[in-house]
């Protein structure tokens, strides 16, 4: 039984200090770590753009319409099926891709084979275990967590050194009730929401490990599932 | 400036004790309550089916594909725009309609005019204020909250008396990591997840009021928004 | 062998005297009456909007594009199929939904299981039998027939009393060659075409009964069909 | 102000005696006759296939899905608009293309510029004036009317002589309530419904002329329309 | 095993001397010639419009969007399949329909049954064998080749005499690197690219024959294919 | 005036010796080289999958349907437009993406701003100038050219060293008339068509440079274009 990890990234501003491809780097790193834990699994090339319309107030976003994302994800999954892959895990690097849940549910009607991850619980547990200073809800975008992971990836030479530490600035914006209506801009002057000044590559290493650990538990369940 | 509330319901099993149209009744009741608070607003007829593929293991679900939901919501909104309505609030009765967030963000690129509600915060606050015994996350489907609202609506004569109290049964299923992959069935024998035995029409009345109150605060902000 | 009745309504002006949801009320009432005649049948929640672009000259219309209607109808039918329903009757309350015929024909290529009703013959016979004063062709919209059915439904308490008898006005507009091009507006100042002043709840009761009777005959044939 | 006539044909069996392209020949002939009456007008090449799923029981049908027909008609109309054409008349040769009415209404929301013809009234009047023996409703397919027009077109050398008079056979099938569900096959052994034995090229010439005359009156109105 | 030839034409300017339907005439003539060589084959009615956006700078083009062309071609092919046809040859008269290759490849995933022709090699060989004065790359549009075939078809009475020899003019425009970006207009004042003054009906007869011969060889291979 | 290079890659087998992402690496390298020549330009993340249905006979292909590719390319281009980018160059690494030409032509109807490259001429000239041993037509897939570029990219450390030189094997398959119908498999046992044994990193460096040079000339024209 084959297993594929399909990372879904995004291209959107991540404050002045992180690259626009941050979500893609993170999705890919998680998928890569997961793949090492599961023999007979592999990682599909990352989809580098998805639903980023909420970042339109800042330069740099490339957004696919929801119908386009649905088509791409279905086509990739159908290609994997044709190769004989029986379980497919979408590794989503961009919180705003809510519709992935609907895509999975729709495809799973006849057999359970598509699974979206990480979920909120995975993130919460990983933040806790990696001892980050705050919850992901307040550290939502380009904050302590994402910046830490990027610092770690730079240290490992996995991505080139493009983080500029001198531009770090924390933005605390705990309530964002109109985010889906008015976008990020009104809630942050930098583009980030969270606490990047608290980031460190050590935290990033831990956070990434814990995300992979948490998700692995659910993937194990998914593989063992008999429904 | 006109304001419209557009309830999104669903048609899916709600345990042996609640009607399959429960989410539609709730969405419609919230929208109706909101409309009373906002002069110059009105309520659009409820969309009675949406994304319910996770309930396929039980009889009674009618599900629209994600692409269909996108088309319906866009067409209704465009018709409202043509009438001169400038702010549109989607009142979502079914937690599984994740993609509504994406639909809104995509339509709001040029101007903020579509808003999805209630969000998680609204539900959490309303559960607290109405003094329900547990969080909505554990009382997810046809539990204390939904059953209470339905009891209230029956008492008010708004919906006919179809709830059968002798079939109540609580199901505690706090962790459902594979829900999107394997559906509801493996997590509940009755179809419900939560605590319907604790329901009362008094709680339902309060919960509905608090939901309307919480959402109203955000709608006020949305109307006052100058972005 | 299960049988489902799926009412297709609309949301569009029906003159100053009838509610914009008139077609939905009528479709639902016919479907409900039909269901009582056929054991093992049930009624799906009414689709409350469809193709009403010809009413754009008046306020109140919500219109779905043709492609959207096709998707919704196909999805509902496929959900019913999945439940094991083998015959599906679309009960169309809005004359302008011509495309339902094409949707049915396309779905029936492999097996005959979708049927659109009432057809013109059903309406003509019912008008005759209920002794309405004129043909449905001249009493096309919010006229004697529709107003009578609404009066009947109000009398029965099925819909709330929103008809305002003091605003009745007959409009005779027998030829409307450009209706599809220029819409209703040029053919009627009130929005209605027909003779609402002649309406009565007694006629409405009869008309509804006769429609149900006429359609039942065809549904019997449909169920007995061996093709 | 330019005017274009866009013939919509079909490819489907027309009994043993008429070619499968009969509807296309008729649509094209009407369009061609109309164009001669209107200076500054022209005829677009005929769309040779449309919605013929009801003929699937016989060989020879090529059918486009409804969504495909919508796309083709919209694209052709948009191309004509780009050329500066301001009024477009769809000349429909195939009765089963109900959805053309919806396509027109949807495109006419902002300005009335698309018009579908002939309507039922045009056909009825033309049948009467050409003194055909029966109504078009009973002479629905490959009957006296269509066969007569084809005989006329053969006589004129417009189409090659492919009608085989020795295979004529009348089929009277006045009631076809389940046509959209079960197709043509159960209502006719030959594929035709109507009275081809009564056809003559003289009747065909008259019928075609009268159709063109009747439609011209409406097209005049359409051109003069100020809505 | 049935075989169908499906001609894909276009509607676009072909200089002042050739009709806008030139590509359709040529596709149809090739298909007709091919069909005579293969017993049990037949010719589907020509699709008279396709992808002609590059001719928008001149009057007369009707263009279908790529998604529309995909739908039409798929629907026609599926209708042919339903009739039992097992091999389908698209005979493309318009060089700009690049996407036909993708449509074929996508449909051939499970079994090889759709084939697009003529390819570049067929055209090159036919130009050589018919002793045309130049390569098709320089004689790209309404040039020596297409004009010759049209002259031949006129001589045969297959199409009416609409070529106006006094408007012939050669345009040599060998390099057109930006054609897909800026269209035909900047590369030709007449709309043609090539050498129509060198055309003759004799060359047209030969060219058509050679095209049919060349394509036949590949169709034979296609029919004999066991993959 | 901004300029963006958008590389279109693919994921498909490239013989036993090259990675399945070869086309993506090449598209990205060309785009990167082009961007260095044009100030104020940038490179969009590579689309890593496209139309690879012809490789289905071998493992490893992920294919997007044509309609999906159209949607993705349109969405990316529309996002770039929104950022103010006025010229967009698609850098296509996969020969089988014929439809990109149609996508560009369709989007260029109102203004010329989308351009697909490299074209056949660019490849031919670059092969010549880099002194490859044979034409690209015979060295079509994973041959001397692609292998050389990959060797060069490995040498530069741009991609990791995954080429396995001991598995090289030349396959000469100059005629592939049925490729679109039957796929690659019948024309090659290794998956490659061409002469990888003749590859060298020096040739790869030259070939890449010459491709960039050739394309630059056309991009200059495109930027200077006043149509």
TrEMBL record, chains A, B, C, D, E, F:
Q: Which UniProt keywords apply?
A: Hydrolase, Metal-binding, Zinc
- Can the keyword Hydrolase be found in this entry's annotation? yes
Q: Which PANTHER family match?
A: 2-AMINO-5-FORMYLAMINO-6-RIBOSYLAMINOPYRIMIDIN-4(3H)-ONE 5'-MONOPHOSPHATE DEFORMYLASE, 3-DEHYDRO-SCYLLO-INOSOSE HYDROLASE
Tell me the leader sequence span. none
Q: From the UniProt record, give one GO term of the biological process aspect.
A: riboflavin biosynthetic process
EC main class here is hydrolase
What EC number(s) would the UniProt record show?
A: 3.5.2.10
- Which Gene Ontology molecular function entries are recorded, alphabetically? creatininase activity; hydrolase activity, acting on carbon-nitrogen (but not peptide) bonds, in linear amides; metal ion binding
The coenzyme or cofactor needed here is:
Zn(2+)
Protein family (similarity comment)? Belongs to the creatininase superfamily.
Top-level taxon of origin: Bacteria
According to UniProt, the name of this protein is Creatinine amidohydrolase
Tell me which Gene3D superfamilies the record gives. Creatininase (3.40.50.10310)
């Amino acid at each position: 039984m084959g297993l594929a990890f399909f990372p879904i990234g995004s291209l959107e501003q991540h404050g002045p200090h992180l690259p626009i491809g941050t979500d893609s780097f993170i999705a890919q790193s998680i998928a890569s770590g997961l793949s090492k834990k599961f023999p007979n699994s592999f990682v599909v090339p990352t989809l580098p753009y998805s639903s980023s319309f909420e970042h339109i107030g800042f330069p740099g976003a490339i957004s696919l319409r929801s119908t386009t994302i649905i088509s791409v994800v279905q086509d990739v999954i159908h290609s994997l099926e044709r190769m004989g892959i029986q379980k497919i895990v979408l590794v989503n690097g961009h919180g705003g891709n809510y519709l992935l849940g609907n895509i999975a549910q729709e495809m799973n009607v006849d057999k359970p084979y598509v699974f979206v991850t990480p979920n909120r619980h995975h993130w919460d547990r990983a933040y806790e275990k990696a001892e980050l200073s705050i919850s992901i809800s307040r550290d939502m975008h380009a904050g302590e967590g994402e910046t830490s992971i990027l610092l770690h990836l730079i240290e490992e030479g996995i991505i080139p050194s493009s983080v500029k530490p001198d531009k770090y600035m924390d933005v605390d914006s705990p309530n964002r009730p109109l985010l889906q209506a008015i976008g990020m801009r009104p809630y942050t002057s930098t583009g980030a929401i969270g606490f990047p000044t608290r980031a460190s590559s050590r935290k990033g290493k831990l956070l990434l490990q814990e995300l992979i650990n948490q998700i692995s538990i659910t993937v194990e369940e998914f593989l063992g599932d008999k429904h």
